[in-house]
Design a protein that fits this description.
binds flavin-adenine dinucleotide; eight-stranded mixed sheet; about 30% helix; 20 strands; alpha/beta; D-Amino Acid Oxidase, Chain A, domain 2; FAD/NAD(P)-binding domain; about 25% strand
Length: about 425
């Protein structure tokens, strides 16, 4: 903090104006709290800017570490675009990768899926409620997304998987070539069929949606402030923080900095195994008269093509490289080559790919709940591949816990205490 006079006092300060932080702020505000959101940038400029746009209601199994040798070797060879890595970086995160691998064993993965399911099940309803209040329902499309297949064997495997998901009550249609072409006439013949996952919602403007949530927050007297969350420090009335407009005090604080959350919890003595899986996107001009009506994913090659306000967004899989490293151009080039077999890509809209950080815990669950040793501090980070999906449901859960309401889902699996050395 700066030592400047305290200018403003709040019931709660939310650190981070991504989808998770903005959702926490809106839900706290609904419960009558005076709330500030502090970000070093405008809301929705972190990972929440550049994702693939899926409210992934159909993702009832978390994104696991590959357990089959063939799959592992394929990723290790870095021939596809699903996985990329910096060999010099792997030793640094090797203990984390081993834990991730351990938690990805089938029985543990099922447990993780069951723990997160109540949040996933709530994802669409919570987004729709916030979007309606923000007057942004048009930014949340009800067209689902398509998992595209390139040969009959792949389509049979995908259809078997979709049939297995019927137990979760998911609505998935198997598309042959004609049905696929009817939905997505812009796809090239390499796409021979697919699965239409119809429960998810999608957006064409992830940052725009967060901005609408931020505008709703401000219209209800929320304070959107610029500041560095690392200035957080315990203060007599709770917590203190320096912002561009002066110091503030808050009785309670929510830490929702995504992949940067460790920069605040580590100095407070917490040792949580949070790492970032990088992901990239690049926009291409939509071909005139062609393009896509909804996101199309090529799961085998590890990319999603999403129609966005800026153009056709090609979003890539996982890149295990230092957070600040230059973009993984090779991975993007491989994704681009495979994507252009599915849809004619126009010129890239930007010169360099955007890089985003997925905040990941090795047991594939976010950390949501009270900080074990600091009363008034709450954690809400680590949503990995599904932070856009889970942001609004997380906001509700955090606000319910902070205000003493009955939580809509069991928060126990998300407690920080599950990690030794916390
Ligand atoms: C390529 C890609 C595709 C993805 N696709 C999907 C998808 O389709 N569906 C889905 O559900 N999820 C998807 N994800 C994951 C999703 O983007 C993230 O899980 C989610 O955006 C995390 O949100 P967050 O609010 O926790 O973090 P962020 O959006 O990163 O927000 C953190 C905020 O903290 C701020 N901040 C950081 N440090 C400081 C500081 N010191 N002081 C002040 N402010 C600070 C940042 O400016 C930022 O605004 C994807 C991710 C990637 C990379």
């Amino acid at each position: 903090m700066t030592g400047a006079p305290v200018l403003r006092r709040f019931d709660a300060a939310v650190l981070g104006g991504g989808i998770v932080g903005m959702s926490c702020a809106l839900h706290l505000q609904k419960r009558g709290l005076a709330v500030a959101v502090i970000d070093r940038d405008r809301p929705g400029r972190g990972a929440s800017y550049g994702h693939a746009g899926l409210v992934e209601r159909s993702s009832v199994i978390p994104y696991a570490f590959p357990r089959r040798l063939g799959e592992l070797l394929r990723h290790a060879a870095r021939r596809g675009s699903a996985v990329s890595y910096d060999p010099m970086f792997l030793p640094r995160i090797a203990p984390w990768l081993v834990r991730y691998w351990w938690h990805s064993a089938p029985a543990r993965l099922r447990r993780a899926g069951a723990d997160i399911l109540p949040l996933i099940e709530r994802s669409v309803a919570e987004h729709e409620a916030l979007a309606a209040e923000a007057g942004a329902s048009a930014l949340l499309m009800d067209r689902g997304w398509i998992e595209v297949c390139r040969d009959d064997a792949a389509l049979r495997r995908a259809a078997d998987h979709a049939a297995g998901m019927a137990a979760f009550g998911l609505d998935a249609a198997v598309l042959d070539r004609a049905a696929l072409a009817a939905l997505e006439p812009g796809l090239l013949p390499a796409a021979i069929g697919g699965i239409h996952w119809r429960d998810p919602r999608t957006t064409t403007d992830p940052a725009g949606l967060v901005n609408r949530y931020a505008a709703l927050f401000e219209s209800r007297d929320g304070a959107l402030l610029r500041g560095d969350a690392r200035t957080l420090a315990p203060a007599p009335e709770g917590w203190g923080l320096a912002t561009a407009g002066g110091d503030l005090r808050a009785a309670q604080v929510v830490l929702a900095l995504g992949a940067a959350s460790a920069e605040v919890y580590r100095p407070l003595g917490y040792r949580l195994p949070l790492e970032a899986k990088r992901g990239h996107h690049l926009h291409f001009a939509q071909p005139s008269g062609g393009g896509l009506n909804r996101p199309v994913a090529d799961e085998v090659n590890g990319f999603v093509l999403s129609p966005m306000a800026q153009g056709l967004r090609l979003a890539t899989g996982i890149d295990l490289s230092p957070p600040g490293a230059p973009p993984a151009q090779g991975q993007m080039a491989r994704a681009r080559a495979r994507a252009s077999e599915l849809v004619p890509l126009g010129d890239p809209v930007e010169r360099a790919p955007w890089v985003g950080l997925r905040p990941c815990l090795p047991d594939m669950r976010p950390v949501i709940g009270p900080a074990p040793r600091h009363p008034g501090l709450w954690f809400a980070f680590g949503h990995a591949h599904h932070g856009f999906t889970l942001g609004p449901a997380t906001g509700r859960l955090v606000a319910e816990m902070m205000t003493g309401d009955t939580p809509f889902a069991d928060p126990a699996p998300f407690r920080a205490e599950r990690f030794a050395g916390r």
